[in-house]
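Quick check before the chapter quiz. The format below is the same one you will see on the exam, so make sure you can read both the input and the output lines.
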Amino acid sequence: MLGALSAAAQRGPMSVPSLVWFKRDLRIDDHRPLVEAVRRGPVLPLYIVELDYWQLPDSSQRQQDFVADSLIELDQQLRRLGQGLIVQVGEAVDVLANLHQRFGFQAVYCHEETGNDWTFARDRAVRAWSRGAGVALHEYPQFGVKRGLRDRDGWSRHWEGFMAEAALDPPPRLDPVVECSPPVEPFAETPAFDPTPCPGRQPGGIGAGESVLESFLTGRGRAYRGGISSPLSAEVAGSRLSPYITWGALSLRRIVQRTRLARTDARAANDSRLASSLNAFDQRLHWHCHFIQKLEQQPAIEFHNVHRGFDGMRENDFDPDRFQAWATGHTGYPLVDACMRFLIHHGWLNFRMRAMLMSFAAYHLWLHWREPALHLARLFADYEPGIHFNQCQMQSGTTGINTPRIYNPVKQAQDQDPEGRFVTRWVPELAGVPDSHIFEPWQLGQTKRQQFGSTDYPEPIVDYQQAAREARARLGEYRKQPGFREQARAVHQALGSRRGSTRRKTRSAKTDPRQGQLI
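Here is the expected output.
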């Protein structure tokens, strides 16, 4: 399957092909590198299974499985056009060099990728190889992130301009260059860092993504506004498009344009609820790129506090026992544990509950954000580094420009799961506990807990009220340090949103932690 390329390329005279390198853009629709390469002649479509990438601590089998689904369908679509997908295992530079030696291509076409530090380094190495080999490397933006940006002023206009451009239809055909086997099990030789099973994962692929988008724009989207905060309703009310955008099975530009057409149609049909929900969703499509742009400008966000005045605040207080209880869903706080177990099973969780999980780890358990962020990254099938590390720092209070939000785990349960249905489904140890105590089972006392069969559920790992008070005090001390405000202004100047001219909009852009994740 991998590396099985026939000699079909040598049948008769043919112009030298170009190579199209697929990365996190596993589609043929609105794919500029593919379109540009086809304009110049035959192409070699390539996906590289990179061994070292899948051993990174933010990688997992659930992500691999989603990509595998997408690769199989991408190959099918390319094969129908005339040339199947070449799947090779190895380091990118080695794979490209070997294919260059065999086929003599003079150009590589691909999308820019704003990924983790490893992919940044990989892309730098590929650029260096291409220069040395005399191969032209053509990189194109995939969405509204702008490479080499120094000033965020005017960025929103850039984003709107990109999204307004006509989406590109797939090429009508591809000249056959080489015969290759379909990628039935593309990761068989490449185990991921985290092999945790994910039985509830969304299927990958272009067709699955199109189906999810269509169902959202034509019906499910009515419940989006007001329905995405509770884990009970968000599973259906959320768009559920995030993994298809993360891995590029769908074009973000195509989604923006179809969302706006559907909103116009809803308004014409006097469907105010759908129109309002699609308007809210449109706003989050913008914030998707806003957060990725931050990582593009400052890759160190993956490793270091955005506001360096917080350095040393939590790094030396890491408690592995607290981390393990949080990571497995055994903190003694029912909604926190239910959300973690749901996430482990599904590879997805609605944004408010993601924020609560990270807030609980950072404030109540006083864990430095880096290890919890890596754990969540592995669990998210829709892991997008630019959004993820920014949001983890926002929920941990280390950006310096966002209002700290310490989620109350009991109140969140009362607000988002008032009847305890979500909790009892995912924390079955509490199934016999009366509704009056479902969110605070420790209040029952040991005798009644035995009576209701809930003694297997742990006592609270911390006193959440006391822990929150201590976290606010610690955070406050760091925010009082000399020079803190000046550095915060510098952070905002470099990374803050410029969208909106009113004071209210500016304040919302700076403090609303719900923005950014497409759910």
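If your answer matched, good. The radius of gyration is 24 Å.
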